[in-house]
Amino acid sequence: MTTTNTQPNHEPRAETTALIICPLPTGEARLDRPMLGLTVGDRLLLSLARAGITRVVFAGEGPRPTSDRATFDTVVNEPSAATPPVDPFLVVPADGVLHPCWLDSANPAPERLSVQWVDPSGWPAIAGDPSGWLSSRGAESTEPEHFAVRVIDKDSRRRGQRALLLSLRKSIDGFISRHLNRRISLQISRLLVRTGWRPNALTIVFTIVGIAAGVLVAVAESWWGYLLAGFLFQLQSILDGCDGEVARLTHRFSRTGQWLDTIGDDVTNYLFCLGLAVGQARALDLPWLYIAGGVTLLIQCITTGIMYRRLIQWGTGDLLAIPDTLTKGQVGGVMGKILAFLGVIRKRDFFVFVVSVVTAAQWPLVGFAMIAVGTYISFVGILINDIRIGKMEREGQSTSPK
To answer: Is residue 350 part of a domain?
Structure first.
């Protein structure tokens, strides 16, 4: 059931109210209907809690949604027992599956939708006739960037699930991720949420897949060994999206998860690079490759140390929190096109795909050369970027993601 949290040892937060309209169920409507790892009711309450709602007021004659994990300062079961809000309040249906954008008062929904931010003066009318207000809004939106679907039957459940899955795509996804990785990972995540596996456990398993790729490419002695190593390296890149997708679908976010994902990616990349060098040094009897692999690993570790220092300073484990001072400006002409191209190929999804293909095509030495060159270029770029961030901080400019 929904828990309450009065937070006696903390300064009180500004109260933000959500009026949850609970209609009588019709047909196949059920708040406890499983939907991508959560029940409909649980998903709504967790979304409200994450959006900063501090007080929920239930209205209507239907069943109330429940959650073991969503916490609010105040929970009121009838509008008559609640003090009318003094600020705009959110009205949502108990059976609604909503995009987070509609839970932000700065982003009002179209009038036709069943989720609305309402002026305090509208409280008496809606609280007095919640079912009438809800019945006046029958439309829905299934666009991934701003969906709002009432789950009342199998068809609406299917539309809601599809909208949820498509909303997991990110605008920052690279070319390979957008056109290949994400298409596959979404379908895998759709199955994984049914298993009950936690995102952090999935991250560890997927990292093991990447480690296996690095070990295999180091000991491979036949064509199928390189083929399998390349496949596993690319597979880990695809699966790398699943833990985050499962976390977002099930509302299980954590700083530990961020760090596990970041470290897992780095371990996979660095071990595969070292495996390529060691494997080719042994297979081709080229001792200098041991040195090249070791030096490259050292540079990778130094680069990682520069970035991790910033992440620890800012209290996050997400590398995307580090601002890009090198290519953030709007540059036109030939240089702009060059920077745009570099922006594509420097993303992890792209270089992992290319190295995987090259390795599977029996050119592991070329794969090592590509990662090594990219490592030294990245080191220079990240070092310059870090120096610029330090200068900005000394000048009093804010660079922290907080």
So the answer is: yes
User: How many helices and strands (H and E) does the chain possess?
Assistant: 13, 11
Helices assigned H by DSSP within 152-254: 154-166, 175-176, 182-192, 199-219, 223-250
Question: In this structure, is residue 399 part of a structural domain?
Answer: no
Q: Would residue 401 count as lying in a domain?
A: no
**Tokens at 170, concatenated:** 């990110």
Q: Which of 315, 344, 338 is nearest to 178 (CA)?
A: 344
Q: Are strands 96-98 and 34-35 parallel, antiparallel or unpaired?
A: unpaired
Q: How many CB atoms lie within 10 A of CB 146?
A: 18
Closest CA to 44 of 23, 62, 65, 68: 65
For 292-317, the pLDDT digits (tens) are 999 999 999 999 999 999 999 999 99
pLDDT digits (tens, 9 = 90+) for 337-380: 555 555 555 688 999 999 999 999 999 999 999 999 999 988 98
What is the domain range of residue 267?
175-394
**Amino acid letter, 120:** P
- What count of residues does the chain have? 402
| Residues 39-71: tens digit of each pLDDT | 999 999 999 999 999 999 999 999 999 999 999
Nearest to 173 by CA among 241, 80, 71: 241
